[in-house]
Amino acid sequence: MTLILFNKPNLVMCQFSPHPTRPSLADYINIPNIYPAGRLDADSEGLILLTDDGQLQHNIAHPSRKAPKTYLVQVEGIATAAQLQQLRGGIKLGDFTTLPCDAKRVLAPDWLWPRNPPIRQRQEIATDWLAITLSEGKNRQVRRMTAAVGLPTLRLIRIAIGGISLSSHPLMPGEWQEVDANAI
To answer: How many of the other CB atoms lie within 10 Å of CB of 49?
Structure first.
């Protein structure tokens, strides 16, 4: 059983098939018969797990068995205690209400790489960093959650899935390594 930890760069498509305008996983990983266990949007960065084991892929990605996922989120504005409480309690997003999650203010880690291209900067608007841990993962959920509380997401980096994290497996964007499948 193979389990690959990959640090997905910004604007890379989370698929092996070619994309007409953007790089895909195939531009970084040349291992036959592995598939991503879950996805990240093209404009999100960070941890992706890939495997050749269908049961492991199911255990990582299926909604009924989802491993918790932690995201480092740079937002526009400074998060208040009330906004963090809203994030933690679950938010009605129209088509669904999010499950409770963990959300807290953090400092940008010293191991964080610069984004390419850089995020937009507005001199008059401060930014803040949040760590958000979800037990679910719907399409663009973190971005929709932060926007709903008045903190638009500028940068989104998945830093952990279950027991595997980029802080314990430091990889630069585009790098990958094989890891022990029992670490999940």
So the answer is: 25
